[in-house]
């Protein structure tokens, strides 16, 4: 698998990686409004688009826990 790590953080991909797991959250409040975030860390093709909070889970992290963590990280 060819990769190029864009973020400033150290690359989280193991050298033998063939797949990555992403998680996301679909959050609706009592007023039936959907939580979306504006993309900032993306190449020009998707910079500034509105999207659901998504990201990669950490090694050995449970999928549900990773989704909750990512929602919190992306929404402050």
From TrEMBL:
<protein>
    <recommendedName>
        <fullName>Nudix hydrolase domain-containing protein</fullName>
    </recommendedName>
</protein>
<dbReference type="Pfam" id="PF00293">
    <property type="entry name" value="NUDIX"/>
</dbReference>
<dbReference type="GO" id="GO:0047631">
    <property type="term" value="F:ADP-ribose diphosphatase activity"/>
</dbReference>
<dbReference type="GO" id="GO:0051287">
    <property type="term" value="F:NAD binding"/>
</dbReference>
<dbReference type="InterPro" id="IPR003293">
    <property type="entry name" value="Nudix_hydrolase6-like"/>
</dbReference>
<dbReference type="GO" id="GO:0035529">
    <property type="term" value="F:NADH pyrophosphatase activity"/>
</dbReference>
<dbReference type="InterPro" id="IPR000086">
    <property type="entry name" value="NUDIX_hydrolase_dom"/>
</dbReference>
<feature type="domain" description="Nudix hydrolase">
    <location>
        <begin position="18"/>
        <end position="76"/>
    </location>
</feature>
